[in-house]
Amino acid sequence: MEWLIVFGSLAWIGLLLLPWRPWSTRERLEATGLNSPTGELADISVLIPARNEEASIDRTLRALAGQEQGLQIFLINDQSTDHTSERAQANGLSNLTIVEGGELPGSWIGKLWALEQGRRLVTSRFVLLLDADIELAPGIVSALREKLLGEHLDLVSIMAMLRTDHFWERWLVPAFVFFFKLIYPFALGNSLKNRLGVAAGGCILLRTEVLTAIGGFEAVRNAVIDDCALAQRVKDAGGRTWIGLSHSVRSHRLYPNLSSFWAMVSRTAYTQLHYSIVILLAVTCFMLIIFWAPFLAITTASWPLKALAFAGWCCLTGAYLPTVRFYRMSPFWTVTLPIIATLYLLMTWSSAIAYWKGRRSVWKGRVYAR
Q: What is the pLDDT of residues 38-95, one digit of tens each?
């Protein structure tokens, strides 16, 4: 038992000492306001894959209308069964082209097939990939473009702020970002010396020539975690990528209850473990030890061990605090991380069980088999 306490405590102390600081929220990009010349964004085409998004598409398009002029917007209606196209047309945007998506080929993920159909229409220098539930603050597209050009990047990505209006959103959303950054450290993804590809698919600006050079979206056509797969392809081709956080890129998709958030996480959780039961078991043991072992110190009479466990607990809450503060929530939420982590572990097992039953991923009514 003592070695569990030592290992679990030292793991958090070690995390805070890692030079790439995966717990940090220092990688940020915010809108600076509308200060660009009219028409400067004419070299950007926006691709929006949309499947049954009638509840979200109005806010997304209105926010795009608030950017600088010149954007060309392609909304690919991915065989929606609701009124997505009608709601989009009702916004009256003269720079909007609605593309009716074709039948999904068997080897493709739906979102990627929709993006590929839009990509074939793009003639601009840059392409902005935008999820149908993403609301952009005025000026953020210009900021993305300036970041890409100013630092000679090939791909710039923003991990959108998720909603924290409901109880389960407040419980689970900051931890979702925290765990994502632990698995895919932003600093490593942004480093020229590291070949890890990291991106968040809600908002990605990249050079069209680079996207063409890697083979378009066909290069990642079967990737469930498509954003990181795309960034990896760009890096493998010698490109430079950057990912950060922002208050200027927000998702307005609702997760009002546990089941809705559970479905979102379990869609890709086992994929992150490469569908390996060995990795799943190792991760399960590791998470149980690092999140709960420090509490075992109350059963020991060793004061040095108690002190180490307390230091580990402080490092655990300290590592989570920057993400909680980024979401402008009370520091109290940091003490709930072990409970939240256990929920995420259960979601991962749920994802694995679904895979063993033959379902690799389920999204928007589509089931992707193993």
A: 557 999 999 999 999 999 999 999 999 999 889 999 999 999 999 999 999 999 899 9
Radius of gyration of the chain (CA): 21
According to DSSP, the residues that pair with 251 across neighbouring strands are 134
Q: At what angle do helices 2-17 and 303-326 cross, to 10 degrees?
A: 40
Q: pLDDT tens across 276-331, in order?
A: 999 999 999 999 999 998 887 777 778 888 899 999 999 999 999 999 999 999 99
Compute, in degrees rounded to 10, the torsion defined by CA atoms 354, 259, 251, 221: 10
The runs of H, that is alpha helices, within 109-153 are 110-119, 140-150
Q: What is the DSSP string of 251-273?
A: E-----SHHHHHHHHHTTHHHHT
Q: What's the burial of 258, exposed, middle or buried (CB within 10 Å: 0-12/13-18/19+)?
A: middle
Per-residue model confidence (pLDDT) at position 368: 66
Average pLDDT over residues 192-205: 94
Asked if 52 and 80 count as a contact pair (C-beta separation under 8 A), the reply is yes
**Integer CA distances (angstroms), 160 to 136, 145, 255, 284, in order:** 9, 17, 15, 28
Side-chain half-sphere CA neighbours of 64 within 13 A? 32
Q: Which residues of 152-185 are buried (b: 16+ CB within 10 A; e: fewer)?
A: ebbbbbbbbbbbbebebbbbbbbbbbbbbbeebb
DSSP class of 128? E
Give me the DSSP letters along 14-55: HHHH-TT-TT----B-----S-SPTTGGGGEEEEEEESS-TT
Higher pLDDT pick, 244 / 66: 244
CA 154-42-30 angle, to 5 degrees, is 55
CA distance 211 to 44: 13
The model's pTM is 0.93
